[in-house]
Specification:
Blueprint: E1 3-4, E2 20-21, E3 37-42, E4 48-55, E5 66-67, E6 71-73, E7 76-83, E8 94-102, H1 107-110, E9 113-121, E10 130-138, E11 144-152, H2 153-156, E12 164-165, E13 168-177, H3 180-189, H4 192-196, H5 199-203, H6 215-225, H7 228-236, H8 240-250, H9 254-259
Antiparallel strand pairs: 1-2, 3-4, 4-13, 5-7, 6-7, 7-8, 8-11, 9-10, 9-13, 12-13
Length: about 270
């Protein structure tokens, strides 16, 4: 069986609800509408790929659920599963989105793959796009993971909210399959977002890892770095190697430099 995680996207973005079966006996629509997909699209990071899927005439969709065409990332086949009006008709309708894993035949891969991924519903205003990142170990027994309540249907269908552009819902998924050594690193942060968004490739900058209670110092150092005058002053400060090289070139004994200065200099400290 396949399972999915539910997250209340309105009040508690990080609270997990009861695990629930995501796939029902109802046939998933495979009509022409779902074939409008781009990807996988390579990014600047060699292990991160994106797929864009467009559901046209979204407000008019009548099927209970829709599944995207299969796509392959890191040698594994995936698809996106969407419930336009949610999985539970008795509740306030919400868009449900899941990433589905197709277990390969290879014995090693059958043990599962640790994956960080981000599901996004695009908005006419990119700053308002809804993005949610997750980590999950996909296995044959736990083959889908996502959000039962990604976005309220009432919000999604509001023509003033900008979610539907020309009636089309635009979904994007970014996927990164973790290597074994990366999984050990992930366990230290448990933050899927930083594994999907590589700061160096996207912004040219990297952050500082918390060494244990160093977060405030890390923040201060990064803030100071972005003060141009201070940054230049620090770069102009001589290093110990540069100081020693200068002393050798001046031919002075280090003790004389410390007390009386280099030959030809003015009177030093007593």
């Amino acid at each position: 069986s396949r399972f999915a995680m539910g997250v209340d996207t309105v009040e508690r973005d990080t609270e997990q609800n009861d695990v629930q079966n995501a796939v029902h006996e109802t046939d998933v629509s495979m009509g022409e509408n779902i074939l409008d997909m781009d990807g996988p699209i390579a990014t600047k990071h060699p292990d991160i790929f994106k797929v864009k899927w467009r559901l046209k005439n979204f407000a008019s969709l009548r099927e209970f659920s829709y599944r995207s065409p299969d796509f392959k990332i890191s040698g594994i086949e995936w698809d996106i599963l969407v419930y336009p009006k949610g999985m539970n008709a008795n509740q306030d309708p919400s868009l449900s989105i899941f990433l589905e894993y197709k277990p390969p035949i290879d014995q090693y891969q059958q043990q599962g793959v640790d994956t960080c991924f981000e599901l996004m519903v695009d908005n006419e205003n990119p700053a308002h796009a809804e993005c949610k990142a997750l980590h999950h170990r996909f296995t044959a027994a736990s083959g889908d993971w996502g959000f039962r309540e990604f976005l309220k249907a009432s919000t999604l269908l509001n023509p003033q909210a900008g979610w539907l552009v020309d009636g089309t819902l635009r979904i994007q998924v970014a996927i990164r399959v973790l290597r074994e050594h990366e999984m050990r690193e992930y366990s230290l942060t448990k933050d899927a977002h930083i594994w999907i968004h590589d700061s160096k490739t996207e912004t040219g900058f990297v952050g500082l890892k918390n060494q244990g209670a160093t977060c405030y110092m890390n923040s201060l150092l990064q803030a100071l770095y972005h003060i141009p005058a201070l940054r230049r002053a620090v770069y102009q400060m001589p290093t110990e190697q540069e100081t020693q090289k200068r002393r050798r070139s001046e031919g002075a004994h280090p003790a004389l430099v410390r007390r009386g200065g280099a030959p030809g200099a003015g009177r030093g400290l007593p």
